[in-house]
């Protein structure tokens, strides 16, 4: 029994796969276009709620994390800078879990007479709204 090398079946299968993928992409595009006409109520946006939650807790979070680093032997500026970096990573991850984008931008840490100052911007965005809020903190780890 001799087998023939016939590629026509493979070409037919490849053509079918390409056709199915193009139909699927058109269907996804149609669903996205249909969703653009849905009215959205920006007063119910998660952006405002989350900004208020972060404003309420950010000082305590940074102070606690910085004091842990400071007690471990780092200086005040390094402790606060590491705390801001870890908070940024946590906020990005938390935003991904909630389905929104959150970032801490333009982090500047400086020290003057034992008090560490932090200036940054909190950026939060979802499908309906975007908010950038400046944040200024002063932390004294010696007290």
Model description:
It contains 3 helices and 3 strands. It is 54% helix and 23% strand. A 3-stranded antiparallel beta sheet has the order 1-2-3, covered by helices on one side. It has 143 residues and is α+β, with helices and mostly antiparallel strands.
Task: Give a quick precis of the structure.
This protein is α+β, with helices and mostly antiparallel strands. Helix content is 54%, strand content 23%. The chain has a domain at 42-139.
Q: Determine the structural class based on helices, strands and strand pairing.
A: alpha+beta
Output the radius of gyration.
26 Å
Biggest sheet details:
3 strands, antiparallel
Average predicted local confidence, pLDDT: 82
Search tags:
alpha+beta; three-stranded antiparallel β-sheet; 143 residues; single chain
Strand-helix topology:
Blueprint: H1 8-35, H2 46-71, H3 76-98, E1 101-112, E2 115-125, E3 130-139
Antiparallel strand pairs: 1-2, 2-3
């Amino acid at each position: 029994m001799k087998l023939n090398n016939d590629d026509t079946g493979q070409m037919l299968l490849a053509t079918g796969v390409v056709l199915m993928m193009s139909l699927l992409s058109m269907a996804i595009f149609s669903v996205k276009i249909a969703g653009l006409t849905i009215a959205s109520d920006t007063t119910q946006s998660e952006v405002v709620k989350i900004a208020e939650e972060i404003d309420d807790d950010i000082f305590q979070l940074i102070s606690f994390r910085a004091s842990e680093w400071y007690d471990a032997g780092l200086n005040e500026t390094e402790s606060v800078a590491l705390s801001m970096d870890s908070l940024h990573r946590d906020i990005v991850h938390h935003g991904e879990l909630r389905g929104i984008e959150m970032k801490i931008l333009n982090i500047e840490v400086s020290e003057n007479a034992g008090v560490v100052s932090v200036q940054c911007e909190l950026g939060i965005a979802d499908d309906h709204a975007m908010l950038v809020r400046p944040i200024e903190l002063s932390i004294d780890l010696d007290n």
